[in-house]
Amino acid sequence: MEEIAQLQDVSVWTIRDRVREMETRRTPAGKPNPNYRDLHDIARHAIHVIETLDVAGKTMGSVLAEHQDFMTSSTEPSHVSKDIHRRLLFFEHLLLSLRHRSASNKERLLNEIHLAYNTVAQYDSGISVKIGQAAQSDSAAMKMVAFVTLTFLPPTFISAIFSMSFFSYDADSGHWSVSEKLWLYWVFAIPTTLATSLLWFLWRQAHPPALVGTESEDTGVADVKSGLSRSIKLLTGGTVA
């Protein structure tokens, strides 16, 4: 029992040291990137430690019950039997204390997992606010551009049409005349417009705009939720497929 208690003590305090290391680790500035695999592995080991402590505690309880029956059946228990019984009680109390320490490690680890989730969620919320502000600024600019366009484009277009050499005005007779080559304007204008639109579309496909908040090591929102949810399920007693 002494060897079992020593092994359990090492296991519990090893988990405690890993949890403490996470608690004292400073979060770097910028995009948070928690080590979800490390959190998941520590959670799994913490659950195994609690499981072995529960089994050891029940085993110790059975040993104590059998030893108590042995002492009761004896007419007068010897000092050796009493010493053994006190020793067994000591190990039972030690295992119970380690069980409480292991449960505390589990709660602290669960707290770190929730903190990692909230930190990532807070960062994503900040990015969403920035996107909203940028969209609001772009909307105001587009309103101004639209207003200027509606104000100046129609008269500019009309003046450009009538200033072409296809139209002529005879001041003496006061009549307008239109050239028979006016079709040349449409022959060049329509293909040029279509070609410009096609080039713009191809450029957008080849060079998509950079998204706000993306980095080279971005794990994605799906990976964040997946890694954290798996660790939380392990600590709360759920099953993970």
Secondary structure topology:
Elements: H1 2-24, H2 36-73, H3 79-162, E1 167-170, E2 175-178, H4 183-206, H5 220-235
Antiparallel strand pairs: 1-2
Helix pairs in contact: 1-2, 1-3, 2-3, 2-5, 3-5
Main location: membrane
Keywords: Membrane, Transmembrane, Transmembrane helix
Subcellular location: Membrane
Key phrases:
rod-shaped; mainly alpha; 5 helices; 241 residues
Strand order of the largest sheet: 1-2
Unreliable parts:
none
Count the helices. How many? 5
Count of distinct strands: 2
Q: What is the second-level CATH architecture of the domain at 1-134?
A: Up-down Bundle
Rg (CA only): 39 Å
Biggest β-sheet description: 2 strands, antiparallel
Classify the helix fraction into a percent range: over 70%
Residue-averaged pLDDT, rounded?
82
The separation of the N and C termini measures 35 Å
Order of helices and strands: HHHEEHH
